[in-house]
Amino acid sequence: MPHHTPLIAILVYGFVLAFILGALANRLRLSPLVGYLVAGIIVGPFTPGFVGDAELAPQLAEIGVILLMFGVGLHFSLRDLMSVRNIAIPGAVAQISVATLLGWGLAELMGWSHLEGLVFGFSLATASTVVLLRAMEERRLLDTRRGKIAVGWLIVEDLACVIALVLIPALAGALGGSEAVGIGGILKALAITFGKVAAFVAFMLIVGRKAIPWILERIAGTGSRELFTLAVLSIAMGVAFGSAAMFGVSFALGAFFAGMLLNESEFSHQAAQDSLPMRDAFAVLFFVSVGMLFNPNILVEHPWQVLATTLIIVFGKSAAAYLIVRAFGHPNSTALTISTSLAQIGEFAFIIAGLGLSLKILPKEGHDLVLAGALISIMLNPILFMGLDRWQAREDARNAANAEPEPEVVPVDICNHAIVVGYGRVGSQLAHLLRERGVPLVIIEDDSDLVAQARANGLPTVRGNAANQRVLQEAAPVRAKLAVFAIPQALEAGETIQRLKALNPAISVLARAHSETQVRYLLEHGADAAVLAERELAYSLADMVMASPPWRVPSKAAV
C-alpha cells in the first residue's frame, strides 16, 4: 500500500504549514489568514521545495467555498441588517461602486478590457468577514452603534458578492472574453441565468424550506450526534452540488441558500456548532489553495501596480466609506471605525478573483494583484486600528462628554454574582434555574443569536469569547462568587479558568466535561468541580429507577 499520495501530501503539508504560520501570524497580532496564504505560497509552484497537486488544490478549494458560503447563509441576519438599513445599504452600495470604479480605472491604465477591469475592481470592493469581526470583537465594539453599522455593511457586501457569483458567469458567457457581443446577447444570457436562479430559489422555498427542517428533526430524534453532523454536511454539499447539476447555478449560491434555510430551523445553532470544525478545516485549505496560485514575483516585476492596488484597498474605498458615513450625519469616531474596518479584503475577494481567472475574464496578473493587495492590507489593518485606538483615546481624554457611550451590558454595581459561560442548551437551562433561585447572573456568549435571546430574557450578557481577556474582564470576575462553564469545549474552558483564577483566586468554578480525561484536565487547570454529563445522567436515571416499584427504597432505610 503506498504511503505517499498527492491527496494525503497536500493535506499534510497544507494543514501543518497553515497551523505553524497561522499561529505565528496570530502571535504577531496579525490575522491567521496571512499565515494560511503564506503556507499556500510555500507549497505552490512558484517557490522551491514541495509543490502541491495543481489539480487537487482547486477541488479542495471548491469544498472550502461551499462550506464558507454555507456558514455565511447559516449566520445571515436580516434583523441586524434592518436595524441599520438606512446607512448600511446605501453606504455599502456606494462604497462598492467607488472601489469597483477605482479598480476598473487602474485596469484601464494597464490595458485590460472593460470586463476584466470590472471583475478586478469588484474583487477589491468587499472586506473580509473574519478580519473585520475579529477587530471589532477585540475592541468590544460589536454591540455599539458603529459596530452594528459595520456588521450591517458587511452583510450588504456579502449579498452583493452572492449576486455577483450569479452575474459574472452569465456576463462571461455572453461576452465570451470580448466585448463584441451586442446588448441583445447580454440580455438573453442574463435572462436565462435569472430564470435558472428563480427556478432554484422557488424550489428551495417550496421544497427545501419544508424538507430541510423535517430531515434534521427526524435525525435529531435518533439521538446520534454523528448522524446529525453528517446530515448537516450532506445538506450543505448536496444542495450545492444539486443546484449546479439541476439548475446550472454556482456551488456557492446553492450552499448559501442551504445555510439560509437551515438558519430558520430550531436546530440551526446545533448545526452551526457541529459543522464548524469541518468548515474551519476546509476554509484553511481554501486559503492555502488560493496562496498556491499566487506568484510572489509580481512584487518585484510589478511593484507600482501592487502599490496602486493596495492604495485602492486601504485608502480608496476607506476614504469613500468615511465620506459616506459622515454624509449621513454620523460622528467622526463612527466614520473612522467603519472606514478602518473596511480597509482590507479577504475571502470573497479570492472567490471572485478565482472565478474570474477560471472563466478567463481576469488575467493571471490581476489575480496575483488581488492576492498581493489582500496580504498587504490584512497585515496593515491591525496597524491602522492601533492608530485609531490612540486617536480615540486622545479624543476621549480631551472631551469625555462627547465620547460615544458604550452600552452598559453589566451593571457597574453587580457583585456576588454567577458568571455562566455559554447560553446554549445547557447554559440557558442553568441560567433559568439560577435566576429562579434569586442568583444574580452575567452571561458570556459569542453567538449573536444566543446573545439576543439572553438579553431578551433580561439577562446581562457580554458578547464574545470568554478566552478573550477583555471579554472576561467585562463580566466583573473580581466581584463574582461563582463561574460555571457550560460550553462543551474543555480545552478552551481550561485555559479560561486559569485566567479567571488569576483574577479572582476565591471564585468557585464549575465546568462541563464529556470524558474522564476532560474532568482531570479541567481540575488540573483550576476548576473546583467538573461534571461528567453522561455520569450525572446515569445517576439521575438510577435514582428514578430506585424510586419506582419494585425497587423503591423503604423509607426507614438509610440512603
Q: Please state the overall shape, judged from the principal axes of the Cα atoms.
A: globular
* Share of residues in strands: under 5%
Strand order of the largest sheet: 3-2-1-4-5-6
Mean residue pLDDT: 81
Structural class, please?
mainly alpha
Rg (CA only): 26 Å
Write the layout of secondary structure elements.
Elements: H1 6-27, H2 32-42, H3 56-74, H4 78-83, H5 85-109, H6 114-123, H7 129-138, H8 145-175, H9 183-221, H10 225-247, H11 251-262, H12 268-292, H13 298-301, H14 303-327, H15 332-341, H16 347-358, H17 364-398, E1 418-421, H18 425-436, E2 441-445, H19 448-456, E3 461-463, H20 469-474, E4 482-485, H21 490-503, E5 508-513, H22 516-524, E6 529-532, H23 533-546
Parallel strand pairs: 1-2, 1-4, 2-3, 4-5, 5-6
Helix pairs in contact: 1-2, 1-12, 2-12, 3-10, 3-11, 3-12, 5-6, 5-8, 5-14, 6-16, 7-8, 8-9, 8-15, 8-16, 9-10, 9-11, 10-11, 14-15, 14-17, 15-17, 16-17, 21-22
Features:
559 residues; mainly alpha; 6-stranded parallel beta sheet; 6 strands; 69% helix; globular; disordered C terminus
